[in-house]
């Protein structure tokens, strides 16, 4: 189902009857319109109970109505609900920050979808393609609950999860994932992802629950100022939760984002963590929230600073070749993409929003020693400490 | 090591002393020059033994000197030698046929390389990039012998090979592999690959030896005439070896070249076979040779017929989007690419010559029902019998 935001409906549409007669999601939209425009707002407030009103107001805060029934999310201490509200908020804030930088006036298109079996959940895929600043930007959330395929069970066991082989399992996953490919080669590509998993056995017992995520920067030209700023923002989010977090997760990031066959990292790193399953899930959640809140301050200043820098055709060509490497990493190594391809009925278009609009390959393209292109490849082969 | 063909040396270079004083491969090249140009040829013939002369003449027939010592290949009934001579010949013939179609005058660059441990063998990678007809064409051979990594052992066991878990194994592989990405969207992309494997235990005993290979066509627009011709050429090669071969391997091809997450094939198929390990290896070899010899008549007439057809910017755009799918298949599913990424010390640039020069992704690009683009996607989802 494709949703345009309320602006597309026109400012003057404010029919109360729509709010009470149409389907649930449409009703939420109608409330949204009412909230913005309508002189009948007081009438609605006075005729409706408070929980219904709050649930109706919820979508106003997000790119589209939540995947889970809005009324179920409100004031719900369950981690699944908390996580869904967090990722909905992060998606909205990040999309709006990016739109503010996009000079063409293009906005994210919003694609709210459900899995074929609607009870298994769905997602909200926000994509901006062909902008002046943003060549291809994707900011997605997914909230799903489905049987855990044998292949995925296997990969979880390989990572130390105790899942008896003779049982069936179901998993819940809620996550936000974003990759931004700007047009200007002086603006780095950026990726972040924060996710929460639960695995239950057939009796509904929680076997495991854990958080994972991270953020990393992929520049085409090395601007130390940018890289230091990016890492510093993530470090200060981590540091709130102990001095060990940033060094540990910075190193994990350098290890994870490795194109092993090439012996080079995807970019200049950031943070990466997985299987975060402490005795205190609330404290894990707070850590994830603080990291997610560090994304805008880590990246947006770089976009703002570099988006108008002049670039040559050769620099653009170099950017496309590096994007070829990005495609290699994402399709060959990335755990999220592999998870997508291994999940029966996965929505592959949402998984592959991470790919650039255009990528290029040339046989044995090696930059000249001493060139700015060479400087970048050198740092991809030999990760540095930035802060 | 990079070899230019003898033409680059100039027609007048014919110094006999070079042939007797320089290293082995250089000597072979010197003989080649002599063969072409030199009035001293008779003097060489009269002063050298026949086997040495034959070995020296061998590289003249190929893109570069063989990977295995040329003298060891001559009149050697061992399957490894027979296969290396076959793939050297196929590479040469196919490269020259393609060069004859390339209107820009560009020729294949020839990159003869060895593995880091030179005793493990190497390959000859022939690449033509940025031509008028051939946007990116790669025709590679590899001849290697190396320890079989645990990961590769695992994947062979999964395909039914009996390899005891507590032993070390070594493998030999010789193969030719080619992907041709033409510039004109009316000329289909074509791939073929023929390979021979041996796995030995640490006592040098052969545990298994088998052939694999195939050829498939990936059009951007469906021209039934082309597809029928392609399949017919492969079928007549197969039919020499029994009426069961083509139907079986045609079906295997449709099954193998499946982008499962998309529910669509990479193209309109062809033939695919693997683990061909009959009691009579010579008959298997003859089958492979006949299929390999069918490549030029299956594909080159299509290139010739379509290369000058006019195309629009929209058709080019569609071609790039389909090339994105080609990249997806090769990086996510293709067994050869996976083998490359899983082989320690693999030469990734040669593995990835299969990728197009440029590829593109757009979110949910669905062609209009009834359009030529839609006709293609329909046949990718529902494979047909062509001959």
Automatic annotation (TrEMBL), chains A, B:
Record-level GO cellular component terms: cytoplasm
Keyword set, alphabetical order: Heme biosynthesis, Oxidoreductase, Porphyrin biosynthesis
Gene Ontology molecular function terms on file: coproporphyrinogen oxidase activity
Family listed: Belongs to the aerobic coproporphyrinogen-III oxidase family.
NCBIfam families, alphabetized: PRK05330.1
Enzyme class: oxidoreductase
Quaternary structure, from the entry: Homodimer.
EC number(s) reported in the record: 1.3.3.3
Protein name: coproporphyrinogen oxidase
Gene: LOC108680468
GO terms for biological process, alphabetical: protoporphyrinogen IX biosynthetic process
PANTHER family xrefs: COPROPORPHYRINOGEN III OXIDASE, MITOCHONDRIAL (PTHR10755), OXYGEN-DEPENDENT COPROPORPHYRINOGEN-III OXIDASE, MITOCHONDRIAL (PTHR10755:SF0)
Gene3D superfamilies, sorted: Coproporphyrinogen III oxidase, aerobic (3.40.1500.10)
């Amino acid at each position: 189902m494709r949703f345009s935001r309320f602006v597309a409906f026109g400012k003057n549409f404010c029919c109360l009857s729509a709010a009470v007669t149409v389907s649930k999601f449409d009703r939420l939209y109608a409330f949204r319109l009412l909230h913005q425009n309508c002189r009948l707002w007081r009438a609605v407030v006075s005729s409706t109970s408070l929980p219904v009103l709050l649930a109706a107001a919820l979508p106003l805060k997000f790119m589209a109505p939540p995947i889970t029934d809005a009324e179920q999310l409100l004031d719900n201490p369950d981690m699944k609900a908390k996580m869904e509200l967090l990722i909905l908020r992060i998606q909205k804030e990040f999309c709006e920050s990016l739109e503010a930088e996009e000079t063409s006036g293009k906005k994210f298109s919003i694609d709210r979808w459900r899995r074929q079996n609607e009870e298994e959940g769905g997602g909200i895929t926000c994509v901006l393609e062909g902008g002046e600043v943003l060549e291809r930007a994707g900011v997605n959330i997914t909230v799903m609950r489905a049987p855990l395929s044998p292949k995925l069970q296997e990969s979880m066991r390989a990572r130390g999860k105790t899942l008896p082989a003779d049982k069936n399992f179901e998993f819940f996953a809620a996550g936000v994932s974003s990759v931004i490919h700007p047009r200007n080669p002086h603006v780095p590509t950026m990726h972040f992802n924060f996710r929460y998993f639960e695995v239950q056995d057939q009796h509904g017992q929680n076997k495991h629950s854990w958080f994972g995520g991270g953020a990393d920067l992929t520049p085409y030209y090395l601007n130390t100022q940018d890289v230091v700023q990016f890492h510093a923002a993530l470090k200060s989010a981590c540091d709130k939760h102990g001095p060990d977090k940033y060094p540990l997760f910075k190193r994990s990031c350098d290890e994870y984002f490795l194109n092993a066959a090439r012996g080079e990292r995807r970019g200049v790193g950031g943070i990466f963590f997985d299987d975060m399953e402490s005795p205190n899930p609330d404290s894990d959640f707070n850590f994830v929230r603080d990291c997610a809140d560090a994304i805008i301050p880590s990246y947006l200043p770089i976009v703002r600073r570099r988006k108008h820098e002049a670039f040559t055709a050769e620099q653009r060509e170099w950017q496309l070749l590096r994007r070829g490497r990005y495609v290699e990493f994402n399709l060959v190594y990335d755990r999220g993409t592999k998870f997508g391809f291994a999940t029966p009925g996965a929505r592959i278009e949402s998984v592959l929003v991470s790919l650039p609009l255009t990528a290029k390959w040339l046989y044995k393209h090696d930059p000249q020693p001493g060139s700015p292109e060479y400087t970048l490849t050198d740092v991809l082969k030999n990760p540095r400490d930035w802060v």
